[in-house]
Design a protein that fits this description.
Layout lengths: L4 E7 L2 E8 L2 E4 H5 L7 H5 L2 H13 L5 E2 L5 E2 L8 E4 L4 H10 L17 E4 L4 E2 L3 E3 L8 E2 L2 E7 L15 E8 L2 E2 L18 H5 L5 E9 L10 E6 L2 E7 L7 H11 L7 E3 L7 H4 L8 E6 L3 E7 L1
Parallel strand pairs: 6-17, 8-14, 9-19
Antiparallel strand pairs: 1-2, 1-5, 2-3, 3-4, 6-7, 10-13, 11-12, 11-17, 12-14, 15-16, 15-18, 18-19
Amino acid sequence: MHGYRLVTYKYVRGARAGLLRDDGVLDIADGTGRATDATMLGILEDWDAAQRRLATLFESDAPAVPLSNLTLLAPIPHPGAIYCAGSNYADHVAEMARANGHPAPPDPHTLGLKTWFFIKSSHAVVAPDSTVKLPAASKKVDWEAELAIVIGKRASHVHQEDALHYVAGYCCANDLSARDLGPRDGLPATSAFKYDWLAHKNFDGSCPLGPWITPAQFAGDAQALPISLDINGVTKQASNTSEMIFNIVEQISHMSERITLYPGDVILTGTPAGVGNGRGEFLQAGDVVKVKIAGLGELTTHIA
């Protein structure tokens, strides 16, 4: 492993933040002597200074606990906010348009548009290797592999050329979506009240996140990472983060124009083609879903 990764692990007295070095985990607060380093949010709220402490701990000879002996939680168990970029890969936009009998729309840049976002509840976040129960009201729960941005500095009205300075790191996410709970029955397609994004995107377990945060300096070019999703060993999505319509810096800039971003906030950057809705396939009990992003690890979710 090049550099270190940041994890949150299950501890007898709750969740603790850890530094993953090779295959061993160091307790960060124990290593730095700072009580606020016990949680990931505490570390992110002091990110500029924390990076120096983390580098010192990484280079130390402190003994580590084998990763295999620990249970990982979501790296940020309760993010302050989760903002999700909608329809942000051209191939995914085209497949969704086909699924709904519409022509593919033009590149939104040509219309002078900016990224549009919806929100997922932080209560929807679940850990790597979690079991997610399909909601009883839905028969069409879909998968969406996504690159997640973790914010490390307060960001308001950020210029695109400065946007990456506000990124602490990246991780894998799966934006699970109840496709059949979005359109509301009894309303015409032209109605402003036709779609329920809360029901569509928010149910218990609908935001698997992890397995860890890769700090930005160890992630390489986050705008050029292979991203894929497998179900029961069969590849459903295979793309690259370079295929985003609105790139990472545009998303951070556009979001920060509307609302201030804070350390520990998460931005899900969109999903590529290959979702179930375009195939007429949806998740079933017993499925094992794996999101993989090069250099950022593998996020596994079990469906029940």
